[in-house]
């Protein structure tokens, strides 16, 4: 199995911690599944920390430090601030895998809105009070299916 | 409960069928849940047909015709071609609900890619061999949560 | 005093209700302050309903109908759906007044983020669980000052 | 409490002073609230100086120098020019917190204009003769609310 | 001498009043110089009213009505609101004459900023408390020179 | 009085000479007014040379060399080519001061065109056979006004 | 031989005169070569008048009126103003023929600048004091070659 | 006479050979006219080689090596690949000289197409089977005129 | 089997002939395969004529007229000009099928260039002296494969 | 014959492996045809590996290592991750050869869609389950023709 790695020449906008974490991950030959298990978080959240898209708690930092053998002080310094989210993907995404997700929004955006509005009223599904996960299914013909679940709190528009 | 409607002055790029279908839906006061049940399809797919983003089968046309009391010949003519997908949402989306989905792709795009690649290898989750659904959950504190599931076939890159 | 009006040749993307409401407002020579008072909402919210950017409740519809002498059935039909927000302003805004607000975000965006993060932790100020108001102050030199208040619920990023 | 920090790999367009100031702030473990108090300015203004979006007066420089233990000559050289504002945020903002502010402008822009025009006449709210502040409120249910106030001088369009 | 006219098929975003005013101007064969003189305003301001970029006072409306023989009620209705400025020119401008002005900003923008900052301090030249005029000069070789003067109030950034 | 300086981390596209000249200007504590006087050119032109937007003549080079104590050979090498104009300002300008100039073009572009065409015929005001200057006026209330004059040769379109 | 025609559904931004002129040209089955000969202008200039990109003199109007049998009053009204140039081609051009010209600028732009600067000094080739023509050459192998000549006055940058 | 030079800080996307060639050209004080003569090519083509926009033949490399005293092995390595054309000019061009050429395409694009189509039929003028040259003319009044000739093979669209 | 149809509300930029041809095609229930066979052209070319992207010869017009029962004079008028190509697809394409082709160019563009350059030298594959076809293959597992062939004349860059 | 090379100053976004592989290719003077033969893959696929657009299998890595004399550990480290596709070409492509492919999509996009839909139904040609090849043909007149074949699995839209 191949592991996801980081080529910093292709991602000049990532925070310094991304290089630190990915280098250690490659050296340790760890998958995000293993890392997630170790720090008690979801795989996508674990990967998001590596890409500077999610905040690591002090416990996450301690656990990442021990698992990846990175001095805790280095991680504390690099992960102590607040993530500056949204810089990894240039929109529209050029990467085919990420583009497919973008295309789903482009094609089904108003269908989602219509169904959500009728089910919940006037509001939005939060992307902040939000979690997500990725699962793998294999059907009886041996085909693999990826299942991505998005779960967000419903926020009704305030009346004022 | 309010129903999703269409204001054609705001959607000049939708196909002619969208006006036909939404007008009838408003007159009949039907939700997409009711329409979906009647035609035996998922709510999101039903809404996608209304927005010209999914193909209606001959049975769908017959069922929509009877439910909405639109002459079958009208629907056949308007729905007989192939959808010209992607025109409903101008990217980046200005609509707050749809923007939240776009933001999820922007923030978690590379995290999804890393996790999917490690789980499945080099490839993509198809947005064509694909289905999606929307569910409503209410937690013990009475908060509502929207759950969107994306399920796509895994397509490995061909070796050539 | 002049009143805000709508020239539909300049706003082709507004919903049909905008023309209905603005035409009646002009005929009745009512300000948004008067309209807001009558329907018991904030002036900005009242104007947002006119621009199709906020949802009107059944009571709002009834009140607008009586105040503006628009048949209630017309307003019910035009306002029964869910607002398709975000279409009024093309970004970056060309209108000087609106541009100044955009410029404030452009100049102080990261300063707001830094201060908010330190005060509240990792999260965002909601633009949905949100209200806003406009006030006028006159200083001792007779200069007028506009004061815009933005008040949004703090949403911490979920840990997952 | 976490402190806002600067990862210069993510902000290549900031002035040299940003790195100087943020490095010292991190070493001293000071919040913008503490810094603002020390230099007698608003928190947002203090953060804006750090991001190169506001001018520091000679007294500000002296105070920052003593508080942060940066040689005054260094700060004088780096802060002596005129800010080149607007370079920190790439529009539309990708950062979720900043995007919410942008979205408020996008959704309520014309509502603000209508209300302001009716209250003040033909003109704009200045973003230059302008101040802003951030406050934290907690409601009786324990929810936190962020309150951002924008206060700008009203400038009527000259008649010529 | 030719007169400036309006071809509405090329300017679909202008307010309704533009067509009214330009049609009457063409019928009356009046130049903006003549119109400006009649209403006691600058030529550029007069033209700006025609393009919906400046507000007409009640006296302007009365004067335009009598000069152009447009019923005053028509002009009052079309000019009573607040201008929605900025929609006439799509940026970057394609029109060669307007592009030259844009190019001056592009080439000399920072030079203006440096000189203005050194002369006035940290601030901007207002485009609202602002007037402008166009003059024609002919040098001794018979060459014509256009002279455009921009005069705006200096607004220093507030300290807060 | 503060002097305009250059922070090269914010202007990566300027020619090498900009750093050379601005560094010397800061060391000598000279304003553009002083520099302009010394080389016998307008302030805006002097600043434009510093930003690589205007050509320096051999005499300018000699004068700048002596005033700023930069070896003449260095300046000759860095200033001997032809300016590659237009790279300093990214359009639309993010800098508030420069944006105001841009906004003037956006708002008054067609008004200028109409007035210029009626005064001069079919053509443009040259931005090449062109000079500009900045002046400061103070009115009786003590308010400062910036006056920018643009003077360009009128070029009629050739008939062919 | 086919003649160039106009399909107004594809050119919604052209002035009203374009439809008038092209309709008459099609009815009369005239080429631009014939039209140009009749009005004593270059073919490209003749076509440019048809596309609203060049001004027609009173004689041109009289000649076009007689040749195309369009009432002179109609042409006078439609052609009396000043062309609003630049609206025909959306840049980058999608049309393959026009794209090739664009590509020449993209590929050889700096080579032209270098050669022109060395030949003429610091300045530009005017696109206003400018003429152009199209010629056809056939080589000995029977291949056709298009030759486009651009001839513009050299304008040196003013020293100020 | 000034010579065209290269400031690599302003052209970060040029190939490595551009710096090599321009540095030698400056040291040798050679114009493109002299270089072109020496290698037996057109001036524009010579400049295009310097900007990485044209391929140098082995003879060109040998001639450039001897003229510019650059070791032939260096030039062979840097010029042996295939040009990656189009990266020098960012479109729309900000440089005034290059913009004028762009503007000619914008204004006369459809006029060229109409005339070329009528003269040659359905096809394009090739920008590949293509040559170009720059000439200088001086009229009897002493005015200089730049003449740019574009000559491309006519390619008819294939019928299939 | 469904047939490709045209919904003109979604394609406002197509030429008038597109509506004429597609309406007749729908009425006659003809596929592009049948139409192509009848007029002796490739299917893609036939469809391209319908979308205004290819020129119809007089014989094509006669054949289309008889097959589709459209008066020949109508087709002659609508098809007599030269196609204004490139307006059907807005780039980047939103339509998933067309996007896949775009993605192939995005991903393999430089690989194609490298291989073509090594095989043919410095030049391009013409898109004008060009033909294309679509074929259907079914493999032994019953999967369908689409095969698109692009065949263009190799054009070497001219040496000048 | 010239070989395709890489000038990293023009491709700053390529992965580190591109420089490694292209440097070795240049030193070994190998064409992609030779490399492809050696690793048993198609030429385009081989070039795509060099540009970071295709995944190399462990055997590919071993074969490339031996052919190019690059230590296997270096290649393993640089090629072990998953390609981050789509970053090589900035769209729209400026390179003339790649632009021609883009233009084919722009011109024939809807024609392909219509023909493919009629032949296969509602779906897309996969760009993932996909292979491509380049061939050279010479006709009897000695003209060279490039033939590019695109072969992708047909994916019907799922019904849900």
Folded structure, characterized:
The structure is a homodecamer of 160-residue chains. With 160 residues, chain A is an alpha+beta fold. Chain A has 2 domains: 8-79, 434 Repressor (Amino-terminal Domain) (Orthogonal Bundle), CATH 1.10.260.40; 96-156, Cyanate Lyase, Chain: A, domain 2 (2-Layer Sandwich). Chain A contains 6 helices and 2 strands; from the N terminus they run ααααααββ. Chain A has a two-stranded antiparallel ribbon. In chain A, a hairpin with a 5-residue loop joins strand 1 (123-138) and strand 2 (144-156). Chain A is globular and about 50 Å long. At the A-B interface, helix 3, helix 6, strand 1 and strand 2 of A face helix 3, helix 6, strand 1 and strand 2 of B. Strand 2 of chain A pairs antiparallel with strand 2 (144-156) of chain B. Chains A, B, C, D, E, F, G, H, I, J: It holds the Pfam family Cyanate_lyase.
Describe what is shown at a glance:
The first copy, chain A, is of the alpha+beta class and 160 residues long.
Question: What is this structure's SSE topology?
Answer:
The structure is a homodecamer of 160-residue chains.
Chain A: H1 16-28, H2 32-39, H3 43-50, H4 58-68, H5 72-79, H6 96-120, E1 123-138, E2 144-156
Helix pairs in contact in A: 2-3, 4-5
Largest sheet of chain A: 2 strands, antiparallel
Kindly report the name of the CATH homologous superfamily of the largest domain in chain A. Answer: lambda repressor-like DNA-binding domains
Total DSSP helices of chain A:
6
Shape of chain A: globular
Radius of gyration of chain A: 18 Å
- Residues in helix, % of chain A: 40-55%
